[in-house]
Each structure stands twice: as C-alpha cells, then as structure tokens.
Amino acid sequence: MNLIEALILGLVQGLTEFLPVSSSGHLVLVQKLMGVDDGGIVFEVMVHFATLLSVVIYFWKKLWRLFLAILPPLKPELAPERQMIGLLAIGTLPAVVIGLSFKKAFERVYENPTVVSLLLLVTGTLLLLPKLFKKSGESGSGVGLKSAIVMGFGQAFAILPGVSRSGSTIVSGMLAGTRSSDAAEFSFLLAIPAIAGAAVLAVKDMIEEGIDHDLLVNYLAGGAVAFASGLIAIYTVLVSIRRGRFEWFAYYCFAAGILCFLWFKFGALAEVAPASVGQ
To answer: Helices marked H in 38-160 — which ranges?
Structure first.
C-alpha cells in the first residue's frame, strides 16, 4: 500500500464509519475499484483505533461522566449515567452473539462487491423509514430498554458490509420511539465497544503478521486522516439530524449502490468479453 492509497482508504474509513453510508461496504468497493487488496491487518487496526479515538474525543465529557458513575462511592446524581452503561451493554450484546455465530457467513459477503452494492440500496431504504413512518408532531423520548435492544439488533444487522452501522442503529432507535438526537448519541456511544472489540480481536493477528516498518509512515498517515475525517463525520451526522436532513444520505446510498452494482455486474463482463472473443 502506497501513501496515496493509505490516505484515500483512511479518509473513506473515517468518513463512512460514522456517516450512515456503511464504512465496511465502502472499503470493499473502493478497494475493488482501486485494484488494491486490503491494507493488511496492521492498517486495519490503525484506522480502527483512529476512528475510535475520534468518537472518544468528541464525546469525552459524556464518557468522563460515565466513568465517574462507576467509581465508589456511587453518587446518586450519576444514576442516569449508570443506567446508560447498562443500556450500552445490552445494546452491544446482539452484535457480539450474532457476529461470532455467523462470522464465516459474513466474511463471504465481503468477497462479493455486487452483493455489497445491493446492500447499499438496503441502507438507503432504511434511512427513509423514519420519514415515511414518523407521525407529525411526534418528538419521541430518551433511550430506554426497548430502544437499546432494538438498536442492538440494528447494529448486529449492520455487520453485513453495505449496511450502515450508524444508519441502522439510529433508524432503529427512531422507529422504537427515541428522539433522533438521543438515538444518534446512543449510536455513537454504542460504536465505542464495537470498534474497540474489532480492533482488539485484530491485534492478535497483527502481532502474528508483524509490522512492515517501511510502510509504517503510510499506516500512520492513513490513521491520522481517519481520525480527522471521523470527527467531521460525527459533527455532520448530528447537524443533519438537527436540521431534519438525515434522509439525504439515503439518496447518496441509492446512487452509489446502483452505480457500483452496474460496474461490478456488467463492467467486469465487458472486460472479459473482448478477451473471450480473441480466444
């Protein structure tokens, strides 16, 4: 992986990790379009920790209160934070169970860019659901047990590349009756154990593979871009929700999904056909 490729993939990872357009799907498609194999386990760990750092920095005040809430003596005024920790644990569980149970099946989807393209259309459809089903004048409530469970299964569904984790969880929360702003914040907090878990699981493979020190600068550059673009993506999503423009991302998913599907379904055939004729 050269420096330009690392910067591009770092940018894609950082932006799409939090924008509701699917980071895993975009990485699969961009790598295929660029003719680049994945950046290796070291690069994967680097950009995952970078995006994890971006969400931790953005929500550091909230996370600090969550940390204080579990320190003895337990302060009564931090009871809502302790409840939030419990809800985050509940919301994380479905992805852990489903992800480990169907790991091989999910991995096979990563190898098929045509299917990934179609799953982007699924993401686009998901993003339109709140607009279609939300009742006028209905504002919703905070995150509760029901919405935490529903958002947890939304996150599990998003293990599929092409299905947006942030989009699926935010929409799930909104459909469960949660205020859009609260659903978005809970979604980003829910991303912390998800991203951290994926990165930690990959560290073992990274140690076995070893680090190519000649490429370390490229890895660090990709990570730095992922961190900066991750911050921008979080801010962009929260602003779009406040302004009632969240569904705009759906139109992008439809366009990207259709174009990539046509490219991988028929573009590859067009390249193979002349070679077949020549033979």
So the answer is: 40-58, 60-69, 79-101, 103-110, 113-133, 145-157
Give kind and range of the element (H or E) at residue 34.
helix 23-34
Which whole-number Å values give the CA distances from 72 to 65, 68, 76, 88, in the listed order?
13, 9, 11, 20
Kindly write down the DSSP assignment for every residue of 214-246, as one continuous string: GGHHHHHHHHHHHHHHHHHHHHHHHHHHHTT-T
Cis ω before 113 (30° cut-off from 0): no
- What is the C-alpha separation between 180 and 173, in angstroms, rounded? 8
Token output for 144: 């509760």
Please give the DSSP secondary-structure letter assigned to residue 77: G
The residue among 152, 123, 141 whose CA lies nearest residue 182 is 141
42 beta partners: none
CA distance 169 to 241: 14
Band (pLDDT 50/70/90 cuts) for residue 210 is low
Confidence grade of residue 93 (pLDDT, cut at 50, 70, 90) = very high
Q: Specify whether the CB–CB gap between 131 and 241 falls below 8 A.
A: no
Q: How far apart are CA 176 and CA 183, in angstroms?
A: 10
Q: Which two tokens stand for residue 253?
A: 């998913």
- At residue 112, does pLDDT exceed 50? yes
Q: Which amino acid is at 160?
A: L
pLDDT digits (tens, 9 = 90+) for 215-251: 778 889 999 999 999 999 999 999 999 888 888 999 9
Question: Whose CA is closest to 258, among 163, 116, 160, 109?
Answer: 116
Q: Which residues contact 151 (CB under 8 A, 6 or more apart)?
A: 91, 143, 169, 170, 172, 173, 176, 178, 183, 186, 187, 190
3-state class of 53 per DSSP?
helix
First to last CA, the chain: 34
Task: Report which of 245, 234, 189 is spatially closest to residue 17, judged by C-alpha positions.
Answer: 234
